[in-house]
Design the sequence.
């Protein structure tokens, strides 16, 4: 059926079209069904789109298209297109193969990933792929194919350096903002460290959210190369670069489903490192009662990372760290950057645990790259930190990213939490502390969050404050206080 186009003033995130109910009935199609949209040009272009049916707004014999359809087909209002029923994408059949327990070839996995990037799969269909991988897993060959396919879906940074370092944590520990400190120490030592990080999805803050309190984090690849050339490093948001876009789409669905499959975890991390050109990598896997993984699972992941890194010729060191409580004092973007600045500034005293872990990880990078002899990396990192060179380098990076370290303030509202009886702080529930900070407004309210005055094992006296909750509105603060009273994430006794 030939229909006349009208450009809709919306972006759906994937190709979507709208038809009037009468036109849809004439075509014999139903809502959410796929339609093939083909241009009437000398060299026709074709796209598959999801159908929405409306009773008003759209005229008969008219097709309203989303921005995605307009851009892909280069359409303008008034153009004529041929509309017909479209077959489901091939990748949907391939996903069902995985769901049935079949091993997928590189070609099949690449087709699925390409369809995800091209928005040929709806969100429920991407969710089906995520579920299939979660339920049936992937063998080594499939995981390698997944990494290559995700990597091929976007651009690479293209740095021409012999040694490019990176560090990654699988997450799950509130605070734990070691990355900016490690980047500053390593860059001050002359290492190239193009750190692209994520924003928070389920946590109180991602590294990108934290840095954004004092500097820009969204840059083009070209601009990022300039920053790295000038400072040896960057602290940027990976989502702005167009690198591994397939990964971003899959992660978004994973988080909504609360599914974290092992193959996708491995593929996500390694593809990002390959995209920036990293050939030396330290991976931090926190384990424990309130961490993402147990020690047994951490050891299993360690072997997986090592095997995959060997395949891609990445020099890797996987470290297992205890993750039974938050690292640092601040939980939330601005509170975490205050901890970072306090550790970096030789004139201040930052959280000892955050400093110690950062020095340990930087030391591992120095030893991995042979900048330091075995067991001498920590001392090298500490010397750079104590000298103020790391602080100077961090300020250089922030300045290059159009920021300033003094652009911080306190949240508008706060409330101290005090203990009701003397004793020892026995336990801090990572998950509940993290959620408490989110209830207070994190990560969107960058000055909201939680500040811990005590850590597990510390002695506390009756009436002593153990935590301060920060919020940008009284309503948010009240919600957070109610959540605290209900969940009691700190246990004293």
Sequence:
């Amino acid at each position: 059926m030939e229909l006349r186009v009208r450009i809709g003033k919306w972006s759906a995130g994937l190709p979507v079209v709208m038809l009037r109910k009468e036109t849809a009935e004439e075509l014999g199609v139903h809502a959410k069904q796929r339609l093939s949209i083909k241009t009437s040009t000398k060299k026709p272009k074709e796209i598959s789109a999801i159908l929405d049916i409306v009773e008003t707004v759209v005229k008969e014999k008219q097709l309203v298209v989303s921005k995605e359809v307009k851009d892909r087909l280069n359409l303008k209002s008034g153009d004529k297109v041929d509309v017909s029923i479209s077959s489901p994408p091939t990748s949907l059949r391939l996903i069902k193969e995985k769901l049935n327990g079949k091993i997928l070839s590189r070609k099949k996995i690449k087709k699925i990933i390409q369809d995800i990037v091209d928005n040929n799969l709806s969100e429920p269909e991407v969710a089906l792929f995520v579920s299939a991988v979660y339920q049936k897993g992937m063998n080594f060959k499939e995981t390698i194919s997944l990494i290559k396919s995700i990597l091929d879906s976007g651009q690479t940074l293209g740095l021409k350096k012999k040694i490019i370092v990176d560090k990654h944590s699988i997450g799950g520990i509130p605070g734990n903002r070691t990355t900016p400190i490690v980047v500053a120490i390593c860059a001050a030592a002359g290492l190239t460290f193009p750190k692209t990080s994520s924003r928070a999805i389920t946590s109180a803050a991602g590294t990108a959210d934290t840095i954004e309190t004092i500097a820009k984090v969204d840059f083009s690849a070209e601009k990022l190369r300039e920053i790295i050339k000038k400072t040896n490093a960057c602290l940027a948001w990976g989502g702005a670069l167009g690198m591994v876009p397939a990964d971003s789409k899959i992660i978004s669905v994973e988080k909504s489903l609360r599914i974290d499959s092992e193959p996708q975890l491995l593929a996500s991390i390694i593809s990002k490192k390959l995209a920036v050109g990293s050939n030396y990598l330290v991976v931090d896997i926190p384990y424990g009662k309130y961490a993402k993984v147990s020690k047994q699972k951490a050891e299993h992941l360690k072997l997986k990372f090592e095997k995959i890194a060997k395949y891609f010729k990445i020099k890797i060191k996987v470290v297992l760290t205890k993750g039974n409580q938050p690292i640092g004092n601040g939980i939330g973007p601005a509170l975490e950057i205050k901890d970072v600045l306090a550790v970096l500034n030789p004139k201040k005293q930052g959280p000892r645990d955050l400093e110690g872990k950062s020095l340990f990880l930087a030391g591992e990078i120095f030893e991995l790259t042979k900048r330091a002899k075995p067991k001498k990396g920590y001392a090298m990192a500490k010397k750079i930190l104590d000298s103020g060179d790391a602080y100077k380098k961090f300020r250089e990076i922030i300045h290059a990213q159009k920021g300033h370290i003094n652009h911080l303030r306190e949240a508008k509202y706060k409330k101290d939490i005090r203990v009701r009886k003397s004793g020892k702080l026995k336990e801090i529930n990572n998950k509940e502390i993290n959620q408490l900070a989110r209830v207070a407004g994190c990560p969107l309210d960058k000055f909201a969050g939680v500040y811990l005055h005590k850590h597990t094992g510390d002695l506390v006296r009756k009436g002593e404050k153990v935590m301060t909750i920060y919020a940008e509105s009284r309503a948010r603060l009240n919600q957070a206080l109610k959540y605290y009273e209900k969940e009691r994430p700190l246990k004293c006794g």
User: Anything to note?
Assistant: The chain has a mean pLDDT of 93.
